[in-house]
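If I may wish for something, please sit down with the protein I am sending here and say whether C-alpha cells and residues agree:
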Amino acid sequence: MASGDFCSPGEGMEILQQVCSKQLPPCNLSKEDLLQNPYFSKLLLTLSQHVDESGLSLTLAKEQAQAWKEVQLHKTTWLRSEILHGVLQELLVDYYVKIQDTNVTSEDKKARLQQEVEEQLKKKCFTLLCYYDPSSDADSETVKAAKVWKLAEVLVGEQQQCQDAKSQQKEQMLLLEKKSTTYSQVLLRCPTLLQRLLQEHHAMILKLRMEEVQILSDTYTVEKVEVHRLIRDCLEGAIHLQEQDLEKSRQVLNSYEVLGEEFDRLVKEYTVLKQATENKRWALQEFSKACS
C-alpha cells in the first residue's frame, strides 16, 4: 500500500492497524475510526514510514543505536581498566613492603608482580563464576578456566533473552491496553443496549396483555357472561339455603345436647316405646288379617 493511497475497506486495513499498534502506541484505533477518517489514516501511514517502534525518527534511532554501542564499548573498556587498577592497587601495597628485601632483584620483583596480577585476576574471575554458578565451586581450575572463557558469551546470551522478554512484555502490555480500550467501549455501549432491551421487554409484556384481553373478549361474549351470571346467582342462592338449613340443624342439635344424660334416657325410652308400638301394630295387623 503506497503512502499516497487512502485506506480502502479491506485493503491494507490490517497492516495499518498493526502499524498504529506497534509504531504509534497512543493511536490505538479501530477499523471504523480509520475508515471514517481517511486523511488521518493517510497521515499515520506516511508518518509510520519515518519512525521506528519507539516513536523516534529513523535517522535519530540509527544515531542513538550507534551512540549506545559506543557507550557500551567505552563502558566495557573502563570496567576492564577499573578491575585491573584495583588489582594493581592491592598488589602494590605488598610490593612496596617486599621491596625492602635486598635479596630480591628488580627483575624478580617484576616477574613476581606479573605473576601475582595474573593470580589475582584469575581468582576474581573464579569468584565471579562461582557467584553466577555456585556448583562450579567444586570444579577443578581447568574446568573453571574453561567456564570463565565461555562466561562472557553466556552472559551476553542471557542479556539478549532478557531484552527479548522485555520486548514481548511490551507487546503484551500494548495488547492488554488495546483489549482494555475495546472492553471499555463495549461496556459503554451496554447501558444503551440494556435500555433498548428493557423497552422491548415492556412492549412485549404490553402486547401479551392485549392478546390476553382479546382472547377473553372473543371467548366470553355478552350472552355467555349473562348466562354465567344467572347460573352463579342460582348456585349462590342454593348455597345460602343450605347454609340456613345447616344452621337450624346445628341449633336443634345444640338444644338437644344441653339436656345431657336426661336426653339420652328419654331417647332410649322413646325407642323402647316406639318398638313396642311397632310390635303391637304388627300384631294387630296380623290379627286383622286372621279375622278377615
Notes: The first helix runs from residue 13 to 22. The chain has eight helices and no strands. Residues 1-11 have pLDDT under 50 and may be disordered. The radius of gyration is 56 Å.
